[in-house]
Each structure stands twice: as C-alpha cells, then as structure tokens.
Amino acid sequence: MLEKKITVKSETGLNARAASLLVREATKFKAESYVIKDGNEYNCKSIMNIMSMLLRQGEEVLLKAEGSDAEKALKALAHLIENPGEK
C-alpha cells in the first residue's frame, strides 16, 4: 500500500465539481484508493464518500492506494486533491 500526505491548496477546497472529477479519475484505476481525514476513511470511488468529507483549503489528509496501478493512481489523485479544478 502506498501513502502520501497532501494539502488542499484551492480556495474552494474540494467542491462538488472537483469531487466528481476525483471520483471519475479514481475509477480509471484498478487500485483501491482512500482519503483519510480526521481518522475517517473515504473511498475515492464513491461520490457520496468524497462529498461527505467536506475537504477545505489548507486541510491535510492522507491518500492511500493499493493495487497493480497504485503508483499511477496515487500520483493522479494527489494532484486532483492538492489542486482541485486543475488538470
């Protein structure tokens, strides 16, 4: 399992549009991926999980990925969480 600590830089945090992009990106990978915030685990492939996280600017979370393409998944998802709205 790979892990990376990341911080949200966007002023709007992880809003609905960014959450949708994150879930869409996560489903492209075979790897299972999760965001850990305040001790709670959120599945990156579930829009309801990601929206309920209420991730705001400046918050630090742990991103975890496990599976055959975990390294690629971790890199892509970390970028989306750190910079919501950017490609």
From TrEMBL:
One GO molecular-function entry: transferase activity
Keyword entries, A-Z: Cytoplasm, Phosphotransferase system, Transferase
Pfam families: PTS-HPr (PF00381)
Major site of localization recorded for this protein: cytoplasm
Any one Gene Ontology cellular component term annotated for this protein: cytoplasm
GO BP field: phosphoenolpyruvate-dependent sugar phosphotransferase system
Lineage: superkingdom: Bacteria
Localization annotation: Cytoplasm
NCBIfam families recorded: PTS_HPr_family
PANTHER family membership: PHOSPHOCARRIER PROTEIN HPR, PHOSPHOCARRIER PROTEIN NPR
Protein name listed in UniProt: Phosphotransferase system, phosphocarrier protein HPr
UniProt gene name: hPr1
